């Protein structure tokens, strides 16, 4: 028999149905020469320091750093029952092969391998790697199972990530907490993320607004205005010199063509759900995961915004069912296998066509409809606008006004529920050299604006782009703080640790968060450190870097901090 291990019960049930395992047992399903069981998240986790030595139960700087020679793992007491079932199945003599059907990602690989290793199983491993829970995708996946050895580097990358997080968290949380007699939580990714929020809040607090001026003319039902003038005297002088009649110096007309945006990866989906619906990153991930398990969307934890070349026919069949608004060039641009590593962009499944999405709970329906709208927009035509800029000159200053007319709304028709449609601003029909009668004139007093507080939308973007300038040698998907799959958890952890707080849609650092950032070493605050490590983890998954070398570098950084005590 073959043992299939999924990450969640719901996924296991979907798989079991497809492969014909329909006899329900305690903690698994059996049938058709298959046994299908499941994890419940992380059944096996890294042990705390006190499991290595009892003295570590009490936090003491003198005991630092803690660098295990061999990392220990233990079964979570809350999920021990399911682990015991899996262990029994893994060691069952009837089982000749184990199929890893956990999520097709780094973390899914780790969840399975830790259970497999903890049970001391030695049976051959096959890997189910799919991007959709549709019956067709599951069948194809089982027809094309991969050898488990092909994912050994991915597992090593996951191990390295876990060990690095453990080393930073266990050592430096203890170090700063003991040093300052306060409970602090330090994390490889969470601390530089916190630092960005703290820096932004400080910039807002320290912002000193600057007064400036513009001069405005009203003529022919138009408002023409100068750019910024810093000195009031200059604005006054200009105002007094404006004649009763002014001449049009130039009329600039430009046609602007805007192509549809790329499809969703998880981070951009989370950002737009926050912007349009106010959902947190975690809420969006939960809704997307539920839609995935309902077979309505493809795998959500992806870092790609493209589809693979072999998906063209299936996707075209899907979008054609919603009308003939089709732009071949735009459609083709969403397919690029070279830009898909593990999973393609998030799109609706073919199965969703036969599903009444109005039966979904409100939040899930909103997320689904947004994902669908993004795909339909991507295959549609360009937004075409004509922008007009009218310029008048007075005493060396330019007075300008602009108008915009939509020539073709293109893809935007699919996004009208989400983006605010701007009304056309039509300027009067005028030509260069025409004279305008000045109806009124005035000075506008204005002030510079401070930076805006982060929202989950803008912070996720900042996390994604962190290190993009420092690391020009890697694809943007491999830069940034954390991964699309982990960023939501990082934000929630910062909130739970009371290092940042939500204020309506704004994310604001707490006093505790600011204190922590002021105390930690520069490398912990600097996003580039974590970005470099994230790139290294990717290289480990590709077989281009060594786990031990990576962990050695992490230990070196920690040792440098603690040696300063």
Describe the protein.
The chain is 39% helix and 18% strand. With 565 residues, it is an alpha+beta fold. The chain has four domains: 2-144, 3-Layer(aba) Sandwich (Rossmann fold), CATH 3.40.50; 161-206 and 452-562, Orthogonal Bundle (Topoisomerase I, domain 2); 211-259 and 383-447, Topoisomerase I, domain 3, CATH 2.70.20; 266-378, Topoisomerase I, domain 4 (Orthogonal Bundle). The strands form five sheets. A seven-stranded mixed sheet has the order 2-3-4-1-7-8-9, sandwiched between helices. A four-stranded antiparallel sheet has the order 14-13-12-15, with no helix packed on it. It is flat, with a radius of gyration of 29 Å. Residues 471-478 have low confidence and may be disordered.
The helicity comes to 25-40%
Summarize model confidence as the mean pLDDT: 94
Q: Uncertain regions: pLDDT < 50 for 5+ in a row?
A: 471-478
Number of helices: 18
Beta-strand percentage?
15-25%
Number of strands: 19
By CATH, the architecture of the largest domain is named: Orthogonal Bundle
Determine the N-to-C terminus distance.
58 Å
| Main pleated sheet | 7 strands, mixed
Going across the biggest sheet, name each strand in turn. 2-3-4-1-7-8-9
- Estimate the global geometry from the Cα principal axes: flat
Count of distinct structural domains: 4
CATH superfamily of the largest domain: Topoisomerase I, domain 2
Radius of gyration: 29 Å
CATH class label of the largest domain: Mainly Alpha
Structural class: alpha+beta
Instruction: Report the CATH topology name of the largest domain.
Output: Topoisomerase I, domain 2
């Amino acid at each position: 028999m073959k043992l299939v291990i999924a990450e969640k019960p719901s996924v296991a049930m979907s798989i079991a149905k497809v492969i014909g395992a329909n006899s329900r047992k305690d903690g698994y399903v059996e049938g058709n020469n298959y046994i299908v069981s499941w994890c419940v998240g992380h059944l096996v986790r890294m042990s705390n320091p006190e499991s290595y030595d009892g003295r570590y139960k009490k936090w003491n700087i003198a005991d630092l750093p803690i660098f295990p020679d061999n990392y220990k793992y233990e079964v979570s007491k809350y999920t021990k029952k399911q682990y015991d079932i899996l262990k029994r199945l893994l060691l069952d003599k009837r089982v000749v092969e184990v199929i890893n059907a956990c999520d097709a990602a780094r973390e899914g690989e780790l969840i399975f391998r830790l259970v497999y290793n903890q049970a001391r199983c030695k049976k051959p491993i096959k890997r189910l790697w799919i991007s959709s829970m549709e019956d067709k995708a599951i069948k194809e996946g089982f027809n094309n199972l991969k050898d488990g050895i092909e994912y050994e580097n991915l597992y090593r990358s996951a191990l390295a990530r876990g060990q690095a997080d453990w080393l930073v968290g266990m050592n430096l949380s203890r170090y700063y907490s003991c040093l300052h007699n306060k409970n602090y939580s330090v994390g490889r990714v969470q601390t530089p993320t916190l630092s960005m929020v703290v820096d932004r809040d400080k910039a807002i607090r320290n912002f000193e607004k600057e007064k400036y001026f513009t001069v405005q003319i009203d003529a022919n039902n138009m408002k023409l205005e100068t750019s910024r003038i810093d000195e009031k005297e200059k604005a006054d002088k200009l105002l007094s010199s404006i004649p009763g009649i002014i001449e049009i110096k130039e009329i600039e007309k430009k046609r602007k063509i805007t192509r549809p945006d790329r499809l969703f990866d998880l981070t951009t989906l989370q950002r737009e759900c926050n912007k349009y619906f106010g959902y947190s990153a975690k809420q969006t991930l939960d809704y997307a995961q539920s839609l995935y398990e309902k077979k309505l969307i493809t795998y959500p934890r992806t870092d790609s915004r493209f589809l693979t070349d072999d998906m063209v026919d299936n996707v075209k069949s899907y979008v054609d069912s919603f009308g003939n608004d089709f732009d071949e060039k735009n459609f083709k641009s969403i397919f690029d296998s070279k830009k898909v590593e593990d999973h393609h962009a998030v799109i609706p499944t073919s199965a969703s066509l036969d599903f009444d999405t109005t039966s979904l709970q409100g939040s899930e329906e909103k997320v689904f409809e947004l994902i669908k709208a993004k795909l339909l927009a991507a295959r549609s035509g360009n937004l075409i606008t004509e922008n007009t800029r009218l310029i008048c000159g007075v005493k060396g200053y330019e007075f300008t006004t602009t108008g915009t007319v939509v020539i073709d709304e293109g893809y935007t028709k699919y996004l009208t529920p989400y983006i605010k449609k701007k009304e056309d601003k039509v300027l009067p029909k005028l030509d260069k050299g025409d004279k305008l009668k000045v109806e009124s004139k005035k000075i506008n007093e204005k002030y510079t604006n401070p930076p805006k507080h982060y929202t989950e939308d803008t912070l996720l973007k900042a996390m994604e782009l962190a290190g993009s300038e420092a690391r020009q040698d890697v694809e943007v998907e491999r830069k940034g703080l954390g991964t699309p799959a982990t960023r939501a958890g990082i934000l929630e952890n910062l909130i739970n640790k009371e290092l940042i707080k939500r204020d309506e849609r704004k994310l604001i650092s707490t006093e505790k968060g600011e204190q922590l950032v002021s105390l930690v070493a520069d490398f912990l605050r600097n996003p580039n450190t974590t970005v470099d490590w994230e790139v290294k983890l990717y290289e480990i998954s590709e077989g281009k870097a060594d786990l031990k070398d990576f962990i050695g570098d992490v230990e070196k950084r920690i040792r440098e901090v603690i040696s300063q005590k």
